[in-house]
From TrEMBL:
InterPro entries, A to Z: Isochorismatase-like_dom, Isochorismatase-like_hydrls, Isochorismatase-like_sf
GO molecular function, one term: hydrolase activity
Protein name: Isochorismatase family protein
Isochorismatase-like domain span: 10-175
Database matches in Pfam families: Isochorismatase
Domain of life, per lineage: Bacteria
Species the sequence originates in: Dyella choica
Statement: the UniProt record of this protein carries the keyword Hydrolase: yes
Record keywords, A-Z: Hydrolase
């Protein structure tokens, strides 16, 4: 289903577009993902809507069958990509789990701002984006996915999220479609 509506108070949430993650191999062009996420951020800022920039700086401590990749310790690994043009008014979240809500105060920030819907972009589609979307949906937020502003390390995982999971959590659209919905609302 294509994105049909954006609530009056919608926030953009960009997941893990940071220097360390951007250097990892992915299935879709990271340059295009970042370009689209940057276009969305610019549009949200033009319409005075919240932009949330999320980075990851650790992992949950639980045991798993598949060991999570260890995070490199370079000083700039967690730095947001400059192409996002981070602004002082952007809300920043550093997470230590897959999703952006757990232990970060993101829910309280969004609810205080009157946000009822989020648009999601970033990496990885099947991990950070999907985990954040699942929690947002459970918390009662409407969710829209900017499909061309996300990618994954696995095509199979990306496709599964887009085709099977996301339609159960919200609506999907392209960056162009989402920006057109924003512009229509603010004419």
């Amino acid at each position: 289903m294509s994105a049909t509506l954006l609530d009056p108070q919608t926030a953009l949430v960009v997941i893990d577009l940071q220097k360390g993650i951007a250097a990892l191999p992915v299935v879709h062009s990271m340059a295009n993902v970042v370009k689209h996420a940057s276009e969305l951020a610019g549009a949200f800022r033009r319409h005075a809507l919240p932009v949330v920039l999320v980075n990851v700086a650790g992992g949950a401590p639980g045991r798993t069958e598949q060991a999570p990749p260890s995070l490199p310790s370079s000083a700039d690994w967690t730095e947001l990509l400059p192409e996002l043009n981070p602004q002082a008014q952007d809300h920043r979240v550093t997470k230590r789990t897959w999703g952006a809500f757990t232990g970060t105060g993101l829910e309280a920030y969004l609810k205080t701002a009157g946000v009822t819907q989020i648009v999601l972009a970033g990496v990885a589609t099947s991990i950070g984006v999907e985990s954040t979307a699942r929690c947002a949906h459970e918390l009662g937020f409407h969710v829209t996915f900017a499909i061309d502003a996300m990618t994954d390390r696995s095509e199979e995982a990306h496709s599964n999220s887009v085709a099977r999971i996301f339609p159960r959590l919200g609506e999907s659209g392209s960056t162009k479609e989402i920006i057109a919905l924003l512009d229509q609302r603010h004419v």
